[in-house]
């Protein structure tokens, strides 16, 4: 452990959805300084929009592993590129939501090890304005119980969901049972990062890594035209100034409780 942190703390850095090439650029250009400043022990990101804004590819995942991301969660867009299906089957560091039906490729949770500390990572997806997946509350609870039985008390959940109330409710439901619950999917960072009374770090949405001057990572002109004309028009990943969004969570290794959460918002012209 480095810096002035106590020995019993593990520091986790989590990024919101990385959107296409601009998002990958944001990670590559802004992450090194963040690592230098904050010295995280482990870094995760949501990869559902990694390749061209839709899904994942071998090349883009490799690029992000090389940039320092240790693991990936995802969401509804993980299925947008067929290439990703094989990749999530064989790469245990890439998750898809755990509450998809049985038989879907990949896994919804995993255990990673840092300095002899085991960390459980769970990916869940919401049910409002998204596919009719199984209940994230029920499936999440089963996985948490399993991890706890295996002696794992540091658990992080990426809850990929559209509506705020579903995310807030899941936060309360699992408060005290996991170390952190972070929301993804909306691509806009919320200002509600906090430690819940039971010791769970919470934020409704991490935000995104992508083009700052965009509509949730996509070219604003195209997004506006779609709203104006209601005609189909293919989205394109926006370029320009970079935005890097996420949080840093400090977790007590012994208790698994979060002791601090800090929002990360970095820009580069
Ligand atoms: Fe997304
Ligand atoms: Fe999504």
Give the CA-CA distance, first to last residue: 33 Å
Q: Give the averaged pLDDT, no decimals.
A: 96
What's the CATH first level?
Alpha Beta
Number of domains: 1
Give helix and strand order, one letter per element, not per position: EEHEHEHEEHEHEEEEHEE
- List the ligand species: fe (ii) ion
Radius of gyration: 17 Å
CATH superfamily: Metallo-dependent phosphatases
- Classify the secondary structure makeup into a structural class: alpha/beta
> What CATH architecture would you give?
4-Layer Sandwich
Could you tell me the strand content as a percent range? 25-35%
- Assign the CATH topology: Purple Acid Phosphatase, chain A, domain 2
According to DSSP, the number of beta strands is 13
Question: Into which percent range does the helicity of residues fall?
Answer: 25-40%
Low-confidence residue ranges: none
Q: Give the overall shape.
A: globular
Q: Please report the number of helical segments.
A: 6
Largest sheet: 7 strands, mixed
What descriptive keywords fit this protein?
269 residues; alpha/beta; six-stranded mixed β-sheet; 6 helices; 26% helix; globular; binds fe (ii) ion
Quick summary of this structure?
This protein has 269 residues and is of the alpha/beta class.
How would you describe what is shown here?
With 269 residues, the chain is an alpha/beta fold. 26% of the residues lie in helices and 28% in strands. It is built from six helices and 13 strands. The protein has helices at 20-38, 58-67, 83-90, 136-149, 164-173, 220-229, and strands at residues 9-15, 17-18, 42-46, 71-73, 109-114, 117-125, 154-160, 180-184, 194-195, 201-203, 208-211, 242-252, 258-268. The model has no long low-confidence stretch (mean pLDDT 96). The structure holds fe (ii) ion (2 copies). One fe (ii) ion is lined by residues 48, 75-77, 160, 185. Residues 48, 75-77, 160, 185 line the site of one fe (ii) ion.
């Amino acid at each position: 452990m480095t810096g002035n942190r106590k020995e019993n703390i593990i520091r986790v850095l989590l990024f919101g959805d990385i959107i296409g090439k601009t998002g990958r650029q944001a990670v590559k250009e802004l992450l090194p300084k963040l690592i230098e400043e904050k010295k995280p022990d482990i870094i995760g990101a949501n990869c559902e929009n990694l390749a061209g804004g839709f899904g994942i590819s071998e090349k883009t995942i490799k690029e992000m592993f090389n940039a320092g991301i240790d693991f990936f969660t995802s969401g509804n867009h993980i299925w947008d590129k067929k290439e990703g299906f094989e990749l999530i089957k064989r790469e245990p560091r890439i998750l898809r939501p755990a509450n998809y039906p049985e038989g879907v490729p990949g896994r919804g949770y995993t255990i990673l090890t840092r300095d002899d500390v085991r960390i459980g990572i769970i990916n869940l997806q919401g049910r409002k304005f998204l596919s009719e997946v199984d209940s994230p509350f029920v499936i999440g609870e089963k996985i948490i119980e399993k991890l706890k039985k295996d002696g794992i008390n540091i658990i992080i959940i990426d809850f990929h969901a559209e509506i705020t109330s579903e995310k807030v409710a899941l936060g309360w439901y699992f408060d005290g049972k996991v170390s952190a619950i972070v929301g993804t999917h909306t691509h806009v960072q919320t200002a509600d990062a906090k430690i819940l009374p039971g010791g769970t770090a919470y934020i409704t949405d991490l935000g995104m890594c992508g083009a700052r001057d965009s509509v949730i990572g996509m070219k604003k002109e195209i997004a506006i035209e779609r709203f104006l004309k209601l005609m189909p028009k293919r989205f394109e990943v926006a370029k320009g100034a970079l935005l890097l969004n996420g949080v840093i969570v400090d977790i007590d290794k012994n208790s698994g409780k979060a002791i601090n959460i800090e929002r990360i918002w970095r820009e580069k012209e």
